[in-house]
Design goal:
Blueprint lengths: L20 H7 L2 H5 L4 E5 H5 L5 H12 L1 H14 L7 H6 L15 E7 L2 E6 L4 E14 L4 E4 L2 E4 L2 E8 L8 E4 L4 H4 L2 E6 L2 H4 L12 E5 L4 H16 L1 H6 L1
Antiparallel strand pairs: 1-2, 1-10, 2-3, 3-4, 4-7, 5-6, 7-8, 8-9, 9-10
């Protein structure tokens, strides 16, 4: 997240993934997220908010705010991305101040498998559906929207590679993928839904205050450790981390 809005999106090097610059422009970030043989993504926070990782959160928070404040800092970070409301309900909830983000999977999705130009949705009822996607290009989310952070107004605009299904996919018609990858930031960030214009609203519309985050369902403990450390360092690390 970038200061509790999103985790840092570190630029991916096309050459490092065996992609030419032209191929990456043509297909966007999806090939990097899918990997050579396809990758299944569980929800990031369903994994790292499990109580077995509570001590890791405390350890990393202690590095930045001290032992005395670590528990409060960990709770603040966790609650900032685990809201249960988004869209109009969230807009109403935060109208008088306060902000939290819903980073869960919505529309009954339990996991996503990215493989080539296909995305398979595993539903909470055990069913699956697979759709083929074509790359539309780069679109901005939150264009012209701002938020106040530490007394300063800041833009929340960020770019996503946008993909549209080639068939009727309902609430999975569009996927908006940020440039995070398992190789670089140990997670991915994305949105999906039925209306591209609505999906471009970050604090407005039916997808307000929602940005899903995923992690390779086969991620090892070292990777899980690293993504928790990243989250804590970016949100508690101070000016040196912000500059980097």
């Amino acid at each position: 997240m970038k200061k509790i809005i999103t985790m840092a999106a570190v630029g991916i090097m096309a050459a490092g993934l065996g992609l030419t610059a032209g191929a990456q422009e043509e297909k966007g970030i999806l090939p990097a997220i899918a990997g050579e043989n396809g990758t299944t993504y569980a929800n990031l926070f369903e994994v790292i908010l499990d109580e077995q990782y509570d001590q890791l959160w405390l350890d990393y928070c202690t590095e930045y705010v001290g032992e005395e404040n670590a528990e409060a800092a960990a709770e603040m970070l966790k609650s900032s991305i685990s809201a249960e409301v988004y869209g109009e309900e969230a807009i109403e909830a935060y109208a008088d101040g306060g902000t939290a983000f819903d980073c869960w999977y919505i529309n009954d999705a339990a996991a996503f498998t990215m493989n080539g130009d296909e995305i398979t949705v595993e539903k909470t009822d055990g069913s699956t559906e697979t759709h083929t996607y074509e790359y539309l290009g780069v679109y901005n989310v939150g264009e012209g929207e701002t938020m106040e952070y530490n007394g300063e107004e800041m833009s929340v605009t960020f770019a996503c590679d946008v993909y549209e299904s080639t068939d009727e996919a309902g609430e999975f018609k569009y996927f908006l993928l940020r440039d995070d990858t398992m190789e670089e930031t140990y997670h991915i960030e994305f949105r999906y839904g039925s209306d591209l214009e609505d999906l471009q609203g970050y604090f407005v519309g039916p997808y307000a205050y929602w940005l899903a985050a995923g992690i390779d369902q086969d991620a090892d403990e070292e990777t899980i450790n690293a993504v928790i450390e990243l989250f804590c360092s970016e949100n508690l690390g101070g000016s040196e981390t912000e500059a980097e």
